[in-house]
Give the backbone structure.
Amino acid sequence: MDRLARSVEQRLTRHFGRRHCLVTASGTTALYLAMVGAGLEPGSRVLYPDITCETAVNAAAFASLEPVFCDVDPATFNMDPSLAMDRAGALDAAAVVPTHIFGSIMDMAPLQDHAGGPLVLEDAAQAYGDGDARAAAGGRAAVVSFGPGKLLDCGGGGALLTDDDELMAACRRAAQGLCSDEPRRDLARTSLMQDLYRLRKAALPAGQAFAQRLRILREHRDGFVHVLPPQVLQTLSQRVDKLPKTAALRRRQTQTLRQALAGHPHVVLQEGLEKAAPWRFSFLAPRAARDRLFEDLLDKGFAASRLFPPPHHLRGDDDAAFPHAVEISERIVNLVLNSPATDLSAMTGHITDVLNAHGQ
């Protein structure tokens, strides 16, 4: 397994242009190892964008850190770099986790220019990039995911990428302590769900409930950060060389959708996808029509989702500090692109019909 893992890691370093790679059980596990390997002090704050995946936020809790949030750029739906650095300073955050949300490639340069600032860990779980729009190329480390629907879909798995020799050595040491006991993992996952259910039933004030949630996640992390299953590594080895072809297809699908929906009076397209191979094709619809459109898409057999409620709600933070994230969460439609057989013309025609009828 070690030889196969090294072979896969070498191929991934070539694809992403990084010096080191560590394949892991998930993107969450990779992010957890980056935080532990970087030596972040327990209780330190980690800043996330307010539109991000819950499992990425959980990585901070698993590492005994406190997640905090900042509003996003209304055009790209990604972390706003200038706002993020101001907020990181105000909250004394030890690390920042910018996310290429849904595959939109954000500009990492403003986050790299702050010498002595917080550690930057790039969350590229949903983005693989292309050409000048590179993902997983910034930060002290970056993580990618091979979970369901991702460009390199292995049903699970992830990778940690870095150019830092010392950090990679520390992450490999930390990985040796990950759980490899399947029954123990199953028990941890079951216990986590039970404890979170009891927490919801307790109806505690938001701030108190959030602190309890972090404690519960930390106590049951063995269910969610663990060693890479051999079957996932085998699948990854078989599929990794097909990534450029898959990415090219995803980019063609994205451009077809952008051209079909561009200029529609009731559609706001996500920026940052010009050279991307995204996980989801995302756009904003009017609030009054969003849920109707979502249900109609499912009725017609098109895969769609309304992902990622703003996580600041968990902390009990005021919506007024996150106006863009709140608006995006109330208007977003995500189209699933992991099937080459999807009839994009029929999909966009249906979207146009529904919005023309109900988009006022």
